[in-house]
Design a protein that fits this description.
Structural class: alpha/beta
Helix content: 40-55%
Largest sheet: 3 strands, parallel
Order of helices and strands: HEHHHEHEH
Shape: globular
Number of domains: 1
Distance between the termini: 48 Å
Low-confidence stretches: 114-135
Oligomer: single chain
C-alpha cells in the first residue's frame, strides 16, 4: 500500500481514491453502527500513521483516502457519515496539521445485504424461503 501511495504522490495523481477504507465488512460481520464507525476510523488512522512513518506528507496523501460505510435501519446510520467526516477532519487538523482539502475524505454509504438482523427485506426473504422449502 505504501508503494502505491508513494507512486500517487510522485506522479501527482489527484482526485482518485487510492485507498478505500471500508467499514462495510465490519457491519456485515455483525458490528453495530457505532462500532463500525470506530473500527473504520481506527483503520483510517492506521493508514495515516503508516504513510507518515514512510515520510509522506499528510497533505500529499490524505485527499486520496476515502471511506465506505454500510447503511441500515438503525437510527445511528442517519448521522454516521456526518459524524465520520467531522471526527476525521478534527483529527487530521489538530493531530496531524492537515490542510482543509486533506480534512475532507470521500465517503460512500451502501445498503447492507440480505440476511442482516435489521433488514426487513431479509426477514421477508427468509419467510418466503422457509415457506418454499416447507419449513
Amino acid at each position: 500500500m505504501g508503494d502505491v501511495q508513494q507512486y500517487f504522490i510522485d506522479k501527482k495523481v489527484r482526485n482518485f481514491y487510492s485507498v478505500s477504507i471500508s467499514g462495510y465488512h465490519i457491519a456485515e460481520a455483525g458490528a453495530n453502527p457505532i462500532s463500525q464507525l470506530a473500527f473504520t476510523l481506527a483503520n483510517g488512522f492506521t493508514y495515516v500513521e503508516y504513510y507518515l512513518s514512510r515520510g509522506m506528507d499528510i497533505n500529499a496523501f490524505a485527499p486520496n483516502l476515502s471511506f465506505f460505510f454500510s447503511n441500515g435501519m438503525d437510527p445511528e446510520y442517519a448521522v454516521m457519515g456526518r459524524v465520520a467526516r467531522r471526527l476525521w477532519a478534527k483529527a487530521l487538523k489538530h493531530r496531524y496539521g492537515a490542510d482543509e482539502r486533506s480534512q475532507m475524505p470521500g465517503c460512500l454509504c451502501g445498503p447492507r445485504t440480505a440476511g442482516t438482523r435489521n433488514d426487513p427485506c431479509a426477514r421477508q426473504g427468509a419467510t418466503r424461503e422457509a415457506t418454499a422449502t416447507g419449513s
